[in-house]
Amino acid sequence: MKKPWLSALYNISMLLLSVTTIILLIIESTRALTRDQAIVLDTIDTVILVIFAADYFTRLIMAKGKWKFIKSNVADLLSIIPFSQVFQALRVLRVVKIFRLVRLTRLGRAARLFSVFGKLCGRCAAFVKTNNFIYAAYIAGCAGLFGAVGISYFEGIGIGDALWWSVVTTTTVGYGDISPRTAIGKLIAVVLMIAGIGFISMLTGTISTYFIDRAQKSKEEPPQKEGNFILDLNGLSNEDKLSVQAYVDFLKARASGVKAN
Fold it and tell me: Is residue 63 scored above 90 in pLDDT?
């Protein structure tokens, strides 16, 4: 695809289809479906299968090395095989789900997730280093974790509710659905509140500094350096080399005269 917008449209379409596959698998695995609902989901899955198959064979036809394409796209080939129709007759439903999960490997290709993930990690690394924000994140994270463990022990609540309370308190949201009643629990809450206020303040300042720095770097133009050229004079005689040197000196003198004027 030569046009960038066509390539972007293709990648987004494949990404949406892959995400739809994830949603279908989650629904089928977590809910008891009626017959009509199962038919609808199976129809959607079949449409996605047909689209993936058309995409695979189109790329196979356009590929110069057919065998090399097949070997490097085994996951794509497995994703378009109608395992549902084959294995449902044998009642091997787990095998159906496993092979349908192979289709999710297309999500990586469709969205270029590896390159995007690499760029995202680089941006995140640069962000957390701004204003030494990473230390504030460490402190807030440790405070929240230890606070959750402490509140769970002293208040006698489950660790899940304790983690929820810790996040709510650290972010200064304070829903009030869980409140400490013991003195130690209240002390833990105060520590988390202070840590949360400091973390949010640091986060706000870091975001501003990060984008200001990026804007300044984008405006700065790198200085243009004059190119240095190397001439290969190995095949020339000494007389010819002297002639070339004299001509180069003449050009330099003329350039200096133009700049002086």
Answer: no
Q: Is there a single domain that holds both residue 21 and residue 97?
A: yes
**Under 8 Å between Cβ of 25 and 100:** yes
129 and 78 in a common domain: no
Q: Are residues 8 and 75 in the same domain?
A: yes
The single-letter DSSP state of residue 158 is -
Residue 255 burial (C-beta neighbours within 10 Å; 0-12, 13-18, 19+): exposed
In a domain, residue 224? The reply is no
Coil, strand or helix at 71? helix
Q: Are residues 47 and 136 in the same domain?
A: no
Kindly report, residue by residue over 208-242, the tens digit of the pLDDT.
888 888 777 766 655 555 556 666 677 777 777 77
Question: What three-state secondary structure class fits 156?
Answer: coil
Instruction: Answer whether 48's CB lies under 8 Å from 25's CB.
Output: no
CATH of the domain at 22: 1.20.120
pLDDT over threshold 50, residue 108: no
Distance CA 143, CA 187 (A): 12
Host domain of residue 67: 4-111
Asked if residue 173 and residue 105 are part of one domain, the reply reads no
Q: Count how many Cα atoms sit within 13 Å of the Cα of residue 64 in the half-sphere of its side chain.
A: 0
Q: How many CB atoms lie within 10 A of CB 236?
A: 13
**Residue 95 per-residue DSSP state:** H
